[in-house]
What does this fold into?
Amino acid sequence: MLIVDLLIGLSIFLFGMMQLERSVESLSSRWMKQWLANTTGHRLSSVFAGTTITALVQSSSMVSLVVLAFASAGIMPLFNAIGVLLGANLGTTFTGWLVAMLGFKLDLQVVALPTIGLGGLLQVFGERREKTRAAGAALFGLGLMLFGLGLIKEVVGGVAEYGDLHLMLGINPLGYVVIGALLAAVIQSSSASMLVALTALSSGIIDLPSAAAIVIGADLGTTSTTVLGSLKGFPIKRQLALAHVLFNVVVVVVAFFALLPFLPLLLRALHLTDPLYSLVAFHSLFNLLGLFVFVPFLSQYAHWIGLRFLGNNHRGQALADVPTDVPEAALSACRAHTQNLLASSLAINLRNLHFDLAQLHLSQSATQLLKDARAEPRSFQQRYEAIKHSEGELLHYAAQLQQQPLSELQSRELMQLLSCVRDAVFSAKGLKDIRANLLALRHSVTPELEHFSAQYQADLQKFYQQLVELLATEHNEAYLGEQLEQLSWLNEQSHTRLHQELLKHDVNHRIEAEQLSTLLNINREIWHSGQSLLQAWRQWHRIVE
It folds into this structure.
């Protein structure tokens, strides 16, 4: 019966913690993720960000998963991501301090029920206000945590009459480390493991060294979240998981062999007599010590980790590897995917028009832009199918992303990206549809057709040469917009001039009716393709500016 009651109390506590985490994430999601993405350029700032955000949102697991998503999307480099993960270890100790200072010093039943009631009222009456509803959910979750903690204290207090669990079970300190690790791995929360240790310590079931050993093991068990999140996706995920596991293993070994045997001396040095405060102080101390050991060598550590699990960390080729529940990371992956598709569409158009890179006399940067998009020696049909498949991947991913709570700006950007891709694919399709006509025209021996072929080849060579050079070099938005409009005008002029020439040839009966229809269609599709491609790149640069 005691076990059932204990499980009920723990379940209520964990459910309350989950509610609190979700609501806090909802309240702070945007600024938290922006901060993680923008303020982690230095080793100290990345560690500080990881520590602070974990302390605020009360979930190192959530921070770890966000970091994995950012790393996969290319928002956060390996060095920065490792710093955040290391800092998260220290941030998670904040929960222990709150529980020790409040959870065991207050009459929890007196506090819990009003908190639950107030949280429920805010959710009901603030249903149409997102922030009010989230605040109500946070209070509701906090109340459930306090209520569950109260039940656990009562149950564990009843167990205390059976004596010291350490003596009863005959478990050595290393055994408690294993218990802590398994407990944290199963319930995916070091905070809950700390709660169990604090409750058992407060009730006298275990002594301080045994509780400290449980906490040491819990820090190792929490790495399971990062490991599980790294099983699929880019090698950088596995690199981060390895970095997190190795850090925690080193910290656990140092804490168990170098600190735990001298725990009484440490507590006397810190002037701590309260066993609860002593336990959470010990938890914070060995995590802080781990940072002191690793942070000075973070660059070297990140470099060494970067040599493990070598593979393709290229962004934007596997959208499914970036979870949609982190919209910032998901949108970054969409941008990378879109950019790759734009370059591929440009490259396939050039291939369809039989333009060789040497023929265009491009600069080195422009040549590299196209080489990256033409790297694989595939047939034209395979390349076009690859572009269509890439478009389908983005559409499917966008449909999933739209199920997440996106801001107005995020929704607008997603629509712009989809429109951008649609224009790029339409451009490639336009030239694909007249591929056979272009090939026949290229090999024509009729003087009028040869003249037309030479004209459109010269116009298109100039058009694409200027476009590729423009895209391969960074420009300010105003200049880029002006040049794209100029290219649009050139494309329009070429279409109008060739159209008029064709009609003039028709009047003089130099071209047969069927040939005239084909040539007019070619001219129109070339124009449409060019305008669609320009529109795609115009939208893209508006997005990234």
Q: What stands out?
A: Residues 2-306 form one domain.
